[in-house]
Amino acid sequence: MRASVARILGILVMVGVLLTPSSASFDQLGGVLSKVKKTADDAKKVVEVGQKLRSGFAEITEEEEYYIGRSVAAMILSKYPVYQNAPLTQYVNLVGNAVAVYSDRPEIYARYHFQVLDTEEVNALAAPGGLIFVSKGLLRRCQDEEMLGLILAHEIGHVAAKHGLQAIKKSRLTEVFTSLGMQAAQSYGPQELAQLTTMFEGVLSDIVEQLVERGYSRASEYEADGLAVTYGVRTGFDPKGIVRFLQTMVGDKSAASGKGWFKTHPTPEQRMTGLNKQIAALGDVPKVDDARTKRFDQAFNSLK
Amino acid sequence: MKKPRSLVILLTVLLVALAIAAADVLVVKIQATQLRKNPQFFAPTVAALKAGDKLEKVSEANGWIQVKTSAGLVGWVHSSAIETPKFVLTAANKDMKTQATASEVALAAKGFNKQVEDSYRAKHAEANFAAVDAMLLIKVSLAQIEDFLKKGLLGDFRGVK
Q1: Are residues B25 and B72 located together in one domain of the fold?
Q2: B18, A93: Cβ pair inside 8 Å?
Q3: B71 and B10, same structural domain?
Q4: Which listed residue, of A16, A133, A198, B88, carries a Cα 20 to 30 Å from A251's Cα?
Q5: 3-state secondary structure at position B93
Q6: DSSP-assigned beta bridge partners for residue B49
Q7: pLDDT (tens digit, 9 = 90+) per residue, A126-177?
Q8: Minimal Cα distance from A8: which residue of B?
Q9: What's the rounded Cα separation, in Å, for the pair A30 and A13?
């Protein structure tokens, strides 16, 4: 009998240890306890806890997203040189971070960072984890802070909605999560590391292919446009800034042959129609402000 | 009847331990953030927080969570900076939906990490990580953002002349 008490004690301690770091509700804990009380046999089931594998892009951790984003950014930065203009880059970072504060995802693993690419191509790209790129060619088309703010809001929208991570093929993600679920070592052995690195390469190519080659889906683009208006208005920018920007692309041949922003399915006209409808429904929206346009002109002087 | 009594004591102790464990525990999921005095970005800082810091949930309002640190400090963090610990398992027993095991805790630290990046970098010399690191060094402080918003009459400072 003494042995059985010891056994129950052991089981209870074990259950306690198992539950300590969890955030299970009282109901669930109550359920666990009543079960443990019933019979010692049930305790066996406590030990037979299966490992639930992660599934889907939403379960990629914040830190993993950061590492994926770093590598995606490293690939983008191997294709395009950085435009060396510190004051302009600082201004773009201020505008971008101001919008990020009013986005649905203001806090991100290593914060938002914006870089200007030295190319006349009209393009903007958002790597997962909040590393956002705009081209010099795109900046040349901006006439005020609202236009730039809304474009950056669109890119922050892609990050907040995790559109980049959604490009990862489901089968690949399942493979990654399955592989990670197998072992519980603190660091990887050579074989496991090699296998994970191959999977990492696959994940990166899925994302880069979408970002650089194929473009986002129609639905993702419209969603990011919607988020741009929401975040832009919250920040206090005139949301029409994005419409005025798209207007510069209408009938532009470089838009048709471009990448990223302009290789996507909706045409600038289609996007403008959707945006105008959304903005009209908002009623009173912020207007362009002289103080902002003045500092924009100052920062962009060096570009012209 | 010594045995049932000792069992009752044991269960009581365990219940108390579980009640403590069951308080809403949250974990900081980003590199660094602040515990703020009010549920606003530009509120005064109560304390600095870093990835992995455990917090106890007190209340929530409009995307902000009021929390208590292990040091007993109370303040607000934005919901995008924290998460519920991920050590969630499907139990063999249906009555036990969520609990963690030691191996699950170990797994939580795994995934695509620096070790995987280093391995990738060794294979891909063309990937420009130097430029990524330089990009991460472009920093604007919260004070700079606040000043920028103020001067541009934006965000919390709209219409404030």
Answers
A1: yes
A2: no
A3: yes
A4: A133
A5: coil
A6: B33
A7: 999 999 999 999 999 999 999 999 999 999 999 999 999 999 999 999 888 8
A8: B7
A9: 16
